[in-house]
Amino acid sequence: MRLVEYYCRFTSWVLKSRRAWHTSVFLIQTALIVFSGVGAFLLRFEFTIPPAMKPALAWGLVAWLATRLPLLRLLGVVGGWRHFSASDFGRLVFANLVCSAVAGLALAAFCPVFFPRSILLIEGMAYLMLSTGVRMATRLSFEFIAQRSRGKRQRTLIYGAGSAGVLLLAESRVNSSFPYMICGFIDDRAPAGVLIQGVKVLGQGKDLARIARRHEIGEVLIAIPSATGSEMREIIARCQAAGIVYRTMPRISEILVDRALARQIRNVAIEDLLGRGSVRLDEDNIRSRIEGRTVLVTGAAGSIGSELCRQIARFRPAVLVGFDISETALFFIEREMREAFPELKFHAEIGSIQSERRLRELFSEYRPSLALHAAAYKHVPMMEKHVFEAVSNNVFGSWNLATIAGEFGVQEFVMISSDKAVNPTSIMGATKRAAELLIRSLQDRGTRYISVRFGNVLGSNGSVIPIFKQQIAAGGPVTITHPEMQRYFMTIPEASQLVLQACSIGHGGEIFVLDMGEPVKIVDLARQLIRLSGLEPDDDIRIEFTGMRPGEKLYEELNTAGEHMLPTSHDKIRIFAGRGLPSDRAAVHLRRLEIACELRDTAMLLAELKSMVPEYSQSQEVTERAFSKNLVTLGKVLEFRKSAARAEAAS
C-alpha cells in the first residue's frame, strides 16, 4: 500500500512540473522500449540470446528508439495515464502498429545482419502490454488513493446511465473531492441488473422510492442533459415523492473543461424544467460576420445586451463597444469583459440613444461595421403610464440609431424586437412594432437592416422568475395576474446566440422570429419554482391572482394575420413577410409623433400610433387617461374664454 502511495505522490509531483513531466515520460518510454526489445529476443531464443544475434539486438534497439519515441508523441499517445480509458487503448494499439511497421521497414532497409521477423511481432506485443500496464497502474493507483482520502460521503444514485452518467461515475473515481458515493444507476431504458463499469443499474425511475429506501440513498444526481422539460418534471416529481435531494449536471456542451465536474453539479433550475435544448450554431458563418470587425451593442448592460457581448467576444472582434445609459450596470459588464476576455478591446460608453449628438460622437470615434440594438424600454405596465417616454426611446431612439448607422456606413444593423409587437395591446408593443416598420423602411440605403423577435427571457431584469424567487424567499404570496396567463420563454444565452445566427443569415429587410417552443402557463411556472425551493404550492406558499394589468394579453402571438412564415437555413429561425412602410410615409408618421410628444397630447399620440400600426388595440386605462386629459385641457380653455369675456364686459 505504501508503494502505491509513494507512486501516486511521485506522479502527482511530476504532473505539477511540466519539465519533470516531459523528462519522466521520456525516461519511462525509453525504458519500456528497451525492456520490450530485450524481452522479445529473450522470449524468441528461450531466455538465452546467441552471440550471433547480439548485433541484431543492438540494431533493433536503435530502430525502435529512433521510431517509437518521435512517432508516439506525433500520434498523441504519450500522456493521459491518469485517465486512461478504452478509447485511449484503441489509439495506443493503432500507434503501436504504426511504430512496429515503420521500425520493421527501417530494419529491412538498413540492418546489415540477419534480423528474425518474428522478433518484430513479439516486441510489438510486449511493448503494448507494458505500456498499457503502466497506464492502467497509474489510473488504478490514483483511484485507490482517491477512495482512501475521502471521508464520509453521501450515498447517491445517478439518474441516467448514458454517456453523461458514465462521465459522472468516472469523475467520482478519480476526484478525491467528489462528495458522493455512487451506489448505482437509475435508468428508464437500460434493463435492471446490467453492470456499467462495475456499477449496477438498480431499476427504473418508477422504482426510485423503493430503491432509495432499500439502499439508504440520500441524494440523486440527474445526468440526462438531453431531457425534455416534461421528462425533467417527471424525474423531479419522483425525487420529491421519494423524499430525497436532487441535483443535476450541466449539458455536455456547457461543461467547463478546466474545472472539475464535481464543482459543476448544481441544483435543478427552472430552465431545466422548460427543456430548452442546446442551440446549433453555424459558427463559421457567424465568425465571418464578426471576427476582426468593430461591433456596437446598445443596451449592453442589460440582460440581452450583456449576453450578446459575451457571445460576440467568443468570435474575436477587433473592437467591441458597449453602449448604455446605466452607469453602474455598464461598469460591471466592463469589469466582467476585461476579466473574461483580457485580449479583447472592449470600450464601455455611456449615453442615450435619444441623443443624436452623442450617437454621432460614438459612430465617428469607433466606425462600427455591425450594430446590435438591444436598448429599449420593455416593461409593459410601466410604459402604459409613460407613453411619451416609450415613444421617445423605442421609436425615436431606434430611428436615430438606425439612420446614423446608415450615414456612417454600418454594414449590418440588427434590432432586438419582441413578440409583444404582434397585434399589440400595449404602448410597449406598439412602439416596438412601429420601430420594426421604420427600420424596414430604411432598407434601400446600403445598410442591411434586420429585426429579430422573441418572447420572454428567463432571468432577465424584471422578468417573472426573479420576482417569484423574491416572493418565495419572503414566504409568499406569489402573485400572478391571471390563472390562464401564458407566455413563451427562452434562456438568455439561447436568445443571444440565435440573434447572432439571424444576423449571419440576413440579407436585409427581414423580420426574423425565433422558435419559442410551446407556451408555458405562468401559474405552472410558479408552482414548479416553489417546488424547486423545497416547498409546496398552496400549503407552504400561497398563490394569489391579482388581475390583468393594463396592456397585458392572456396569450402572446408570434405573427399577425397579414404575415407569412418562411423557413430559413436554421431550424429555430423563421422569417415573417408582411407589409412594409414607404419611406415618405415613415417621415410623416415620425413628424406627427414628434408633434404629439412636444404637445404632450396623449390622444394625438395614440391616434398616430393607431394610424401607423392599425392592429394596435390600446388598453382601456390609456384611453381613459387620454380622454380625461383632453377634457381637462378643454375645461381650461373654456374657463379662460369666460374670464376673458367677463374682463372685456367690465371694461
Features of the shown structure:
651 residues, alpha/beta, Rossmann fold, 4 domains, 9-stranded mixed sheet, 14% strand, elongated
Give a summary of the structure in a few sentences.
The chain has 651 residues and is α/β, with parallel strands linked by helices.
What would you say this structure looks like, in words?
Residues 253-259 and 631-638 have low confidence and may be disordered. Helix 7 packs across helix 8 (229-242). 52% of the residues lie in helices and 14% in strands. The strands form five sheets. A nine-stranded mixed sheet has the order 10-9-8-11-12-13-18-22-21, with helices on both faces. Strands 3-4-2-1-5-6-7 form a seven-stranded mixed sheet, with helices on both faces. A two-stranded parallel ribbon has the order 14-17. The protein is an alpha/beta fold and 651 residues long. The chain is elongated, with a radius of gyration of 34 Å. It folds into four domains: 2-147, no CATH class; 150-268, 3-Layer(aba) Sandwich (Rossmann fold), CATH 3.40.50; 283-597, Rossmann fold (3-Layer(aba) Sandwich), CATH 3.40.50; 598-650.
Reading off the top of the CATH hierarchy, the class of the largest domain is best stated as Alpha Beta
The proportion of residues forming helix, as a percent range, comes to 40-55%
What is the end-to-end distance? 118 Å
Low-pLDDT segments, ≥5 res = 253-259, 631-638
Number of domains: 4
Q: Per CATH, which architecture of the largest domain? A: 3-Layer(aba) Sandwich
- Principal-axes shape call: elongated
List the total number of helices. 22
Radius of gyration: 34 Å
Oligomer: single chain
Q: Pairing-aware structural class of the strands and helices?
A: alpha/beta
Major sheet summary line:
9 strands, mixed
CATH superfamily of the largest domain: NAD(P)-binding Rossmann-like Domain
Strand order across the largest sheet: 10-9-8-11-12-13-18-22-21
Instruction: Give the number of DSSP strands.
Output: 22
- pLDDT averaged residue by residue: 79
